[in-house]
Amino acid sequence: GRGQLLPPQNVTLLSRDFAMILTWAPGEVPGVTYTVRYESQDRPDKWMKVPHCKNIPRTFCNLTCALPNFYVKVRARVKVVWGRFQSPWVQSQFKDYYSDVELAPPVLSLDVGENSIHVTASFPLPTCVENLTWKYDLNLWEAGSEDKVSKSGSFQKKYEGCFRKDTVTINTTALSGNYCLSARALYESVSTKHSEFSQPVCVLINPRG
């Protein structure tokens, strides 16, 4: 008779760091492989193959660039394969990239000139979503003033809704001392989504004396 393997556990479709990823916990047999397929809501009962996630040893599959449409909900399923044995499929819930995507903070790069700082933000994007209109918000403040932002006299400046490939140029002529920058990714879909703010990057500007 046909042997049957225990199926994968905790099958979950995650939207994380700009990517749509199916994850699962391994079954009990070591050395098995996994095969993944997905279905979109506009083509029910048509399970599409994912060539880069066929007979894989790892317990996740990045589906982002396999999806033909980011505006339609999809779900995925996975089974265990071991020789000629296989487990039943286990399905995830439906998700859609456009409204469910979770953002990672951008990585800031600073070019400090004599009277200006040029700031660029890079994003850990899958290649297939490069053309979506990602933006970022940038904050600049004087180091040590974080807990006094609401009081008058402490310096803080916001640059909101910068396009991903735009360089923000900050005039530093009037600034002196240690200043910090932090940014968050921004994506406008049905509602506006934000990432967490990035770890602050601090620079010394026009040190006195």
Automatic annotation (TrEMBL):
Pfam families membership: Interfer-bind, Tissue_fac
Recorded GO MF terms: cytokine receptor activity
PROSITE patterns: FN3
Organism (species): Pomatostomus ruficeps
Descriptive protein name: INLR1 protein
Top-level taxon: Eukaryota
Gene3D superfamilies membership: Immunoglobulins (2.60.40.10)
Gene Ontology cellular component annotations, sorted alphabetically: plasma membrane
Family annotation (SUPFAM superfamilies): Fibronectin type III (SSF49265)
Gene behind this protein: Ifnlr1
InterPro entries attached to this UniProt entry: FN3_dom, FN3_sf, Ig-like_fold, Interferon/interleukin_rcp_dom, Type-II_Cytokine-TF_Rcpt
Domain spans labelled Fibronectin type-III: 7-100
